[in-house]
Amino acid sequence: MIEIVNVTKRYKQLTAVDHVNLSIRQGEIFGIIGYSGAGKSTLLRCLNLLEKPTQGIIVIDGKELTALSDQEVRKERQKIGMIFQHFHLISSKTVYDNIAFSLKAAGKTKAEIKKRVPELLEMVGLSDRSAHYPAQLSGGQKQRVGIARALANEPKVLLCDEATSALDPTTTKSILQLLKKINKTLGITIVLITHEMEVVQNVCHRVAVMENGQVVELADVYDMFANPQTALSKQFVQTVHSLELPERLLLGRKGAIVQITFKGDSAEEAVISETLRQFHISVNILHGQISYIQERPLGTLIIEMIGSQSDVRQAIRYITKRTNQLEVLADVA
Ligand SMILES: Nc1ncnc2c1ncn2[C@@H]1O[C@H](COP(=O)(O)OP(=O)(O)OP(=O)(O)O)[C@@H](O)[C@H]1O
User: Fold this and answer.
1) Looking at ligand 1, which atom is closest to the CA of residue 43?
2) How far is the CA of 16 from the centre of ligand 1 (A)?
3) Distance from Cα 147 to the centre of ligand 1, integer Å
4) N- to C-terminal Cα distance for the chain?
5) Which residue range or ranges hold the ABC transporter domain (predicted)?
6) According to the model, what pLDDT value does residue 289 have?
7) Parts of the chain with a pLDDT under 50
8) CATH no. for residue 19?
């Protein structure tokens, strides 16, 4: 659906986006995560040519945007909706007129606008706020207007530039739910940038991690959580799944301390009790959690295994075979 081929954006000496290649699939919610200054916004704005890449090609829905004239780009941009962190609503216009504005700009007739605006308001749950002005709305409601406006011309792609960063956690959840609904019911491909791994966990199917203008990792969100490959991804995963053990928990330990990751079905199997049945060891549970990412379970358990060296080794081999993911954090035996 979206092809980003070797895209670079330079501002004088600074390279904000550096040779990025990504292929975003029709109908997916694709996240781009990175710290401030990583180049996420610039890359997102390159997708609808709000920023012109210094080099590289952008193809959306089969059309090479980077090969079009400015006038043609303006027309194509109407098929790409965009929402922003600070909403960018027109303060002197009502909710109705803010949405109608995009339809007018796309040359829709008065009758078409009159039919379409209420449909959009209903979709975002704001039918009773039509005559309000932006100043009379909460942040979440303003973003709902932003979403309605972005969807006005039935885009195939929706770009979200830190769309929930200015919102509290509960409102963030409700806006993310709305984005999920839009993706599911309208089949719109969504690209969102964020610095919050929780947003990625909640809505994205795949995620690219950016650093210094480059994509340093690309993965299914579940795999990123289960097995992050780079130090940066590990940091992001740990912001949601914190597994730092307090030092005092490690004091006076006698056995091997291991971290086990249970993926998919193995998260629901009785691996530990079967281990205890087969080997002469005892186990202390130090930390455990199970999360659901795209409705698939992902479990993490940190345990201390106490027994003879040979029994502990065999038990470790057994668990590794069953789960495929066991890391020895400390062996104080
Ligand atoms: N119009 C511009 N002119 C000059 N430099 C720019 C411009 N826009 C962005 N930059 C620089 O490009 C780099 C990447 O910025 P960008 O906003 O894309 O990062 P980001 O990952 O979105 O970060 P943030 O979340 O803070 O916006 C930064 O060093 C930034 O200062």
Assistant:
1) 18
2) 6
3) 24
4) 54
5) 2-237
6) 83
7) none
8) 3.40.50.300
Q: Domain check: are 160 and 290 in the same one?
A: no
pLDDT digits (tens, 9 = 90+) for 21-37: 999 999 999 999 999 99
Q: Whose alpha carbon is nearest atom 28 of ligand 1?
A: 37
Domain boundary among 174, 206, 239: 239
**40 in ligand 1 pocket by Cβ < 6 Å?**
yes
Residues 167 and 230 in one domain: yes
Could you tell me the residue range of the domain that residue 72 belongs to?
Answer: 2-239
Q: Examine the domain organization and report whether 45 and 155 are in the same domain.
A: yes
What pLDDT, on a 0 to 100 scale, did the predictor assign at position 269?
67
CA of 42 to the centre of ligand 1 (A): 6
- Alpha carbon 205 to its chain centroid, in Å, reads 7
d(CA 192, CA 24): 12
- What is the structure's pLDDT at 267? 59
Report the percentage of the chain scoring pLDDT > 70.
98
The number of domains in the chain is 2
Q: How far is the CA of 67 from the centre of ligand 1 (A)?
A: 24
Which of 211, 239, 267 marks a domain boundary?
239
175 and 47 in a single domain? The answer is yes
Kindly state if the Cβ of 263 falls inside 6 Å of ligand 1. no
Evaluate: CB of 131 within 6 angstroms of ligand 1: no
Nearest residue (by CA) to ligand 1, atom 2, is 11
Query: Are 211 and 253 found together in one domain?
Result: no
Same domain membership, residue 213 and residue 155:
yes
What's the pLDDT score for residue 332? Answer: 59
Instruction: Looking at the structure, tell me whether residues 266 and 233 fall in a common domain.
Output: no
Q: In what side-by-side order are the strands of the sheet with 256-263? A: 281-293, 296-307, 256-263, 326-331
Where residue 56 falls (left for φ over 0; alpha for ψ -120 to 50; beta otherwise) is: left
Task: State ipTM.
Answer: 0.94
Classify each residue of 240-255 as buried b or exposed e, where b means 16 or more C-beta atoms within 10 Å of its C-beta.
beeeeeeeeeeeebeb
Q: What is the CATH number of the domain that holds 317?
A: 3.30.70.260
Name 110's Cβ contacts closer than 8 Å, sequence gap at least 6.
Answer: none
What three-state secondary structure class fits 94?
Answer: coil
Using most ligand atoms within 8 A of CB, pick from 7, 17, 40, 165 the residue to mutate for ligand 1: 40
With a 6 Å cutoff on the Cβ, whether 299 touches ligand 1 is no
